[in-house]
Every structure is written in structure tokens, then in C-alpha cells.
Design brief:
Length: 293
């Protein structure tokens, strides 16, 4: 399969905004690297789009121009592209993935580095394969911290599971049953491998599905729902997630930048959720909510 590699050269202050933009435009991940142009330190944020898809570059450029007109971007920027095949990039980004402390009791450990290590009970071994979500991104790590703090020994739904890292974290924190869903076939394959590697397959079930299809005909009420998605997907989730949650259930969400957090707060109130915790780190929000009543 061929991909379009989209490079956005930007000032360091806009790094997180651009990384989220690439995700929202459909990128299968984002890589951030420092670069220099005419002795000026800049950042290159790279995303990957299926070649022949929704014109990744065009979508990115359109949004960047909107931000520039609104005064949200200061300084020069430009966008370039290159067509690549799988083997030229899919595994290169893993060179940046090493043992990452998440909480006092949990580390994310690459499969390639686990040999000979003394493991803690909540350590999570991840072979990311061609998926993203190793635990290095702040949205993932904030969700993991909230799972440890606000978790449950009951039922958990992980929506958009990616590598399976949040589902595994929920199981390691005591959840008895976790249903993890993702629409991406490759993500599901990798998540199943990671679940097996972490010896939680008796409690974590991974399905290639959306939420509604996964629970069709099933009498299931989650004590905890976890969704590390983009803002639009979370807003859509509010309209239906109550049907699958216990009346006292909690919801952990992330993938939200500052300019859209008020939309999330308003939707939470509209659909009967109370915000218990709200964390902001590096321009990204993670929230823990519970149902009213």
C-alpha cells in the first residue's frame, strides 16, 4: 500500500495544534522532529494518509490558512508531501519509543526492550506494530492515569482501542471484563497481540467494530467507558453512550485541544454528565465524568 507523507514545518509553539490537525484530517499518526531552516529552529510534524484518499495535504493547508487568518499561528509555515510505501516509514517511528513511566506503579515498555527487565504488576508491554498509541502521547498517558485513579473492578468499554493499551490498563487496574473496539483491522490485530502479551486475554475482548455493532443484542452496562478520540467523535459519542453505561458509570475522554474544550463541557451538561476531573497537559485535555442521578 502507498501513502502520502505530509510534512508541516511550523514554529515550536504550534506543534500540538498541528499534530491534532493531522489526526483530525485522517492521518495514521504523527511524528514530531526538530529541524533548522536558515538557522531558525522549527518543528517538522509528519502525518501519513492513504494515497488517493481525501487529499491529506489539501485538508491540512485549508485549516492552516484558517488558523493563520484567525491569528492562531505566528511565524512562517509550509506544507510538503512525498509518496511512500509501507516499508519506508511504518516502523521508523518506533525508534522514538522507549520505556515510559506513566504513574508511580506503571510503565509502558516496548516489547523489544522487555527481555531481562524486572516487571512491576501494572507494567504494560506494547508491540505497536504499525499502529500508534504507544503511551508516549500525552492524551494516552493522561487516560491511563485517570483509569488508575477512577477505574473500576466491573465492566469497561474502550472505544477506539488502537494498540489496546487503555483496555490493558483497565484490566491491570482490576476490571473484570473489558470490551475494546476499533474500526481499523490492523489496530485490532495488534491490540489482540498486546492483550495476549500482557496475559489479560481472559478479561479483555477486542473486536473490529463500532460501539453499536459490538453491543448489538447484548445486555451490557459499563461501569467505565474510555474514549481517546478526536473532538468530533467524542461529541457524537455523547448522543448514544448513555445507553451502554450504568447509571453511576464513569466516562474518561481525551483528544481535545483548548479551542474546543467548551464544546465538550456543553455536551457533557446537555447529556447528563458531571465533570469530576479535568486535566490539561501540553495543550491537550483529558476528563473524567460521571452520569448525573
Amino acid at each position: 500500500m502507498q501513502w502520502q507523507e505530509v510534512h508541516v514545518i511550523i514554529s515550536p509553539g504550534a506543534t500540538e495544534m498541528v499534530a491534532l490537525l493531522l489526526y483530525e484530517c485522517g492521518s495514521n499518526g504523527a511524528i514530531v522532529e526538530d529541524t533548522k531552516i536558515d538557522d531558525t529552529t522549527l518543528v517538522r510534524v509528519t502525518g501519513y494518509f492513504p494515497l488517493g484518499g481525501n487529499q491529506g495535504k489539501a485538508l491540512v493547508v485549508e485549516k492552516m490558512k484558517e488558523w493563520e487568518d484567525a491569528g492562531l499561528i505566528n511565524g512562517p509555515w509550509h506544507v510538503t508531501t512525498k509518496d511512500v510505501d509501507d516499508t519506508s516509514w511504518l516502523y521508523t517511528w518506533q525508534d522514538y519509543f522507549h520505556v515510559t513511566p506513566i504513574t508511580d506503579t506503571c510503565r509502558v515498555i516496548p516489547y523489544k526492550e522487555v527481555s531481562g527487565m524486572s516487571l512491576q504488576e501494572k507494567d504494560i508491554i506494547i508491540d505497536p506494530g504499525v499502529s500508534f498509541g504507544s503511551g508516549l502521547h500525552v492524551t494516552t498517558s493522561m487516560c491511563m492515569q485517570l483509569i488508575e485513579k477512577c477505574g473500576t473492578q466491573g465492566n469497561v468499554l474502550d472505544i477506539g482501542t488502537g494498540t489496546g493499551i487503555l483496555a490493558i490498563m483497565a484490566a491491570k487496574c482490576g476490571a473484570q471484563e473489558v470490551i475494546a473496539v476499533d474500526l481499523d483491522e490492523q489496530a485490532v490485530i495488534q491490540a489482540k497481540k498486546n492483550v495476549l502479551c500482557n496475559e489479560v486475554s481472559s478479561r479483555v475482548k477486542v473486536q473490529q467494530s463500532d460501539l453499536v455493532a459490538a453491543l448489538a443484542g447484548v445486555s451490557y452496562r459499563a461501569d467505565l467507558v474510555v474514549a481517546n478520540l478526536v473532538t468530533d467523535a467524542i461529541l457524537a459519542l455523547f448522543t448514544e453512550i448513555g445507553h451502554y453505561m450504568d447509571m453511576q458509570g464513569k466516562l474518561i475522554i481525551s483528544g481535545i485541544i483548548d479551542e474546543r474544550i467548551q464544546e465538550i463541557r456543553s455536551a457533557a451538561s446537555k447529556y447528563g454528565f458531571i465533570i469530576l476531573e479535568e486535566h490539561l497537559q501540553e495543550g491537550w485535555y483529558a476528563l473524567c465524568l460521571k452520569r448525573e442521578g
